[in-house]
Amino acid sequence: MLELPHLDQVDQEIIKLLHENSRISYAKIGEMLSLSRVAIQKRVENLIDNEIIENFTIRLNATKLGKVVSAFFEVEVEPRFAEEVGNTLSADPNVISIYQMTGSSSLHMHALLKDDAALENFLYQNIYKLNGVVRVNTQVVIKRFKQGTGLEL
Q1: What is the dihedral of CA 71, 116, 128, 72, to 10 degrees?
Q2: What is the pTM for the complete model shown?
Q3: Domain that includes residue 44, residue range
């Protein structure tokens, strides 16, 4: 388990349990840690208030929902257009994540798309048409070994 030195052992255990199953009840956590449901609830609220826990979420199976093409894009953008292009692409529902990076490519993006035709359309209609885009390098995922949702414990 990742050591979180600024949190006590109980908070670390709570985070571990919630990370494994965010639907676990406070009562069940309390039972596992020999604390009351109310004590667990207060600790979780404190973790939320202190922004240690940002949100609770689920992970969807993209393939089962019709998004079979997972692609990563290195989008080189003229520096003066980086903010505009980043904001425009981040608003697209196909885009899972987008980051401004150092190096030759200024934006790194992950998108989930329905099929190869949707990928082609996304490239030409959503990326290449944007002012400031200089070059796009696209890589399609063929096999996933691990997928995270943020900091892994």
Answers
A1: 0
A2: 0.76
A3: 9-49
